[in-house]
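Whiteboard transcription, Tuesday session. T.W. wrote the C-alpha cells on the left side:
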C-alpha cells in the first residue's frame, strides 16, 4: 500500500505512458510499405496523367470513365495523405528527430510534384461548358461525386487563363507571400521588456499574452501596456504590411472580378453573403448580452468598471485539478448520456491507443485530432496538465475524432469538412461535457468558475470574432480607395471594439494598437467570421437538442456521417437548421443569454462575497 502511494506520488503526470500506437498507419519509420507507397504514388500519378490528360477537355469522357478517374484520383490522394499523416504524427511528438524530418521533406516534395501533375484534371473540368458538366455530374454513376464536381466549378467565373494564373502564382512569392513572411518573422523576433514591481524580464509574445489570465490586476494591465507599447513602436512596419496585403487582396478582387472584399472567402466557405450578413447583424443586435456579463464580471472582480485587460481574469482562483483517468470517465459518461454510439467510439480512442496525452520533451504543445484517411482512423494529441480545462479540451478533440471517425463512410474527396462546420462536433462535445460536469459538481464556487469560463470562451469566439470581422470590413473597404495611415487603421479598430464594449468595458488609449499583431488579418483575410459561424451553429444545434431531446440524436449523428458530401446549408437543413433564417442564429444567442443568466443567478446566490 505504502509502495503504491509512493509510486503515485512520484508520478508527476497522471497521463504518463499514454502514448499513441501508430501501427495502423505504418509499422514504423523503417516499414518497407513506406517506400512502396512513395513509389506507388508517383507511378500511379504518371499512369493517371497518361490515361486521362485531354480526355475531359475533349468532352468525350463517359460518366463511368469519369467515375473511374475519380476513384483513381482518390487512391493517389489517400496514399499521399496517409504518408503525410504518419510522418506528421511522428514529428508532432518528437520534433527534433532528423530521420522524421527527412522523410517529411520527401513526402512534401512528392506532394508538390503530384499537385503539379494533377492540376490538368481540375483545369480541364473547369473548362467544360456548364451544360456538359452538369449533365455529367447528374449521371447516376457519379452520384457520390456530384457535389464535389459541381462545387469545384464554383471558381470558374473567377479563374483566369492558364498563363495568367501561372504569372499570378509566381508573382505572389514576392508579393503576398513575402509580406506574410516578413510579418511572421518580424513578430516572432520581437522581445518584450516587461517590468513589474521592480522586476525586469524579457518575454516572448506568448509568455506576455498568457498574463491576461493572471489574478493580479496590476500585472494584467502592465502586460497589456507593455504589449501595445512595443507594437506601436513598430508602426511603420506593421502599417505597411497591413496596407500592402489589403491592397493585394483588393487587386486580386479586381483582377478576378469579385464584388465585395468578403466575396472570395464566402466562396471558399461555400456560404452565401446574405447568410453571413444576417448572422453578423443578429450578433450585433445581441451585444447587450455581453454588456450584462461585463457588468457581472466587474462586480465579481470588485471593480466599478472592468477594462479590456480584465476580460480573462479568473473569477474563481482555486479551481480543482483533474487526473487523466478521471477526465476520461467524465467525458465518456457525458457522451453516454447523449448516445451509446458516441461513448462506444470514444472508448475505442482510449482502448486502442489512438491518443497521446503524456507531456514530454520534444512534443508539440496544444491539442488536435488528425483525421488521417478514411481507410484508417483518427489520432488525438493532448497535453494533459491536470487542469479541469483539460477535460474540456479532451471532449473537444474527441468530438472532432468522432466526427472524423463517422465521416469515414465517405470516400476521400467527401471526407473533409469545410471550415464553417469543422468545429461542429468538437464544440458540441464540449457542451455535452460541460452540462454533465455542471450537473455533478456541487461546490457553488467551482460551478461559477466553470460557467464564467464557458461564457468567456463563447464570447471570444462569437462577439470578439464578429468585432474582428467588422474591423476588417471597414479597413478593406477604405483601402480600395487609398492607402491607410496608422491612425486610420487604429480608428477602425477602435470603432469596431467600441461597438461591443460600449460603456461597460474601459479601453486604454493604447488599445487602439490591438489590430497590429493578429495573424489572421495577415494570413487569411476574413477568416474570423467562420469562428462566429461555427460557434453559433453549435449553440443553436445544442439548443435544438435541449428542446427536441432524443429525436434530435439520430439526425445529429447522420450529419456527422455526411462529411462534405453536400453543401453545409443542405446538410444542416436535414437536421432542421435553416441558416438563412435570422431566427436560427438568434437561437444560438439565446443559448448564450441563458448561460449568462445562469452565471448571474449563481453569483447572486454564492459569489457576492466581494
Ligand atoms: Zn477544434
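and on the right, the sequence the group agreed on:
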Amino acid at each position: 500500500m505504502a509502495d503504491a502511494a509512493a509510486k503515485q506520488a512520484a508520478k508527476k503526470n497522471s497521463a504518463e505512458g499514454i502514448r499513441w500506437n501508430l501501427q495502423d498507419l505504418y509499422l514504423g519509420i523503417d516499414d518497407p510499405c513506406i517506400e512502396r507507397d512513395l513509389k506507388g504514388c508517383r507511378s500511379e500519378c504518371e499512369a493517371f496523367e497518361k490515361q486521362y490528360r485531354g480526355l475531359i477537355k475533349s468532352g468525350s469522357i463517359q460518366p463511368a470513365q469519369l467515375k473511374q478517374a475519380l476513384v483513381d484520383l482518390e487512391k493517389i490522394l489517400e496514399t499521399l495523405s496517409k504518408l503525410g499523416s504518419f510522418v506528421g504524427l511522428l514529428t508532432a511528438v518528437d520534433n527534433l528527430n532528423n530521420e522524421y524530418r527527412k522523410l517529411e521533406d520527401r513526402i512534401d516534395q512528392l506532394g508538390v510534384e503530384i499537385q503539379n501533375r494533377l492540376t490538368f484534371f481540375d483545369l480541364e473540368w473547369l473548362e467544360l461548358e456548364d451544360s456538359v458538366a452538369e449533365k455529367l455530374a447528374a449521371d447516376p454513376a457519379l452520384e457520390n461525386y456530384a457535389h464535389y464536381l459541381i462545387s469545384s466549378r464554383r471558381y470558374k467565373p473567377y479563374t483566369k487563363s492558364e498563363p495568367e494564373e501561372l504569372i499570378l502564382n509566381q508573382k505572389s512569392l514576392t508579393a503576398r507571400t513575402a509580406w506574410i513572411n516578413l510579418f511572421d518573422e518580424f513578430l516572432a523576433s520581437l522581445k518584450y521588456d516587461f517590468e513589474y514591481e521592480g522586476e525586469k524580464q524579457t518575454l516572448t509574445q506568448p509568455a506576455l499574452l498568457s498574463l491576461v489570465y493572471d489574478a493580479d490586476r496590476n500585472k494584467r494591465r502592465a502586460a497589456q501596456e507593455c504589449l501595445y507599447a512595443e507594437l506601436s513602436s513598430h508602426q511603420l512596419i506593421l502599417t505597411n504590411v497591413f496596407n500592402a496585403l489589403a491592397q493585394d487582396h483588393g487587386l486580386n478582387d479586381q483582377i478576378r472580378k469579385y464584388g465585395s472584399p468578403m466575396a472570395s472567402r464566402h466562396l471558399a466557405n461555400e456560404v452565401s453573403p446574405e447568410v453571413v450578413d444576417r448572422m453578423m447583424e443578429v450578433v450585433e443586435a445581441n451585444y447587450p448580452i455581453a454588456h450584462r456579463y461585463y457588468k457581472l464580471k466587474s462586480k465579481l472582480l470588485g471593480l466599478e468598471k472592468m477594462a479590456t485587460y480584465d476580460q480573462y481574469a479568473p473569477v474563481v482562483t482555486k479551481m480543482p485539478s483533474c487526473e487523466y483517468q478521471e477526465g476520461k470517465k467524465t467525458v465518456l459518461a457525458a457522451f453516454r448520456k447523449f448516445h451509446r454510439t458516441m461513448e462506444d467510439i470514444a472508448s475505442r480512442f482510449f482502448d486502442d491507443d489512438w491518443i497521446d496525452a503524456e507531456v514530454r520533451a520534444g512534443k508539440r504543445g496544444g491539442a488536435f485530432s488528425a483525421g488521417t484517411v478514411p481507410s484508417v482512423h483518427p489520432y488525438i494529441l493532448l497535453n494533459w496538465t491536470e487542469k479541469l480545462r483539460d477535460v474540456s479540451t479532451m471532449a473537444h478533440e474527441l468530438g472532432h475524432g468522432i466526427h472524423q471517425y463517422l465521416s469515414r463512410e465517405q470516400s476521400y474527396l467527401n471526407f473533409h469538412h469545410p471550415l464553417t462546420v469543422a468545429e461542429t462536433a468538437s464544440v458540441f462535445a464540449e457542451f455535452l461535457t460541460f452540462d454533465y460536469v455542471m450537473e455533478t459538481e456541487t461546490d457553488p464556487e467551482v460551478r461559477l468558475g466553470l460557467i464564467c469560463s464557458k461564457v468567456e470562451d463563447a464570447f471570444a469566439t462569437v462577439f470578439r470574432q464578429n468585432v474582428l470581422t467588422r474591423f476588417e470590413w471597414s479597413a478593406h473597404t477604405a483601402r480600395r480607395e487609398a492607402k491607410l495611415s496608422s491612425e486610420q487603421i487604429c480608428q477602425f479598430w477602435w470603432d469596431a471594439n467600441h461597438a461591443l464594449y460600449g460603456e461597460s468595458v474601459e479601453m486604454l488609449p493604447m488599445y487602439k494598437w490591438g489590430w497590429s499583431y493578429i495573424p489572421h488579418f495577415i494570413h487569411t483575410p476574413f477568416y474570423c467570421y467562420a469562428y462566429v459561424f461555427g460557434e453559433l451553429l453549435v449553440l443553436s444545434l445544442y439548443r435544438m437538442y435541449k428542446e427536441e431531446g432524443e429525436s434530435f440524436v439520430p439526425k445529429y449523428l447522420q450529419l456527422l456521417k455526411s462529411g462534405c458530401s453536400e453543401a453545409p446549408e443542405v446538410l444542416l437543413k436535414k437536421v432542421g437548421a435553416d441558416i438563412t433564417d435570422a431566427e436560427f442564429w438568434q437561437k444560438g444567442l439565446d443559448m448564450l443569454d441563458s448561460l449568462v443568466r445562469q452565471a448571474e443567478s449563481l453569483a447572486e446566490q454564492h459569489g457576492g462575497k466581494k
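Someone added at the bottom: The mean pLDDT is 92.
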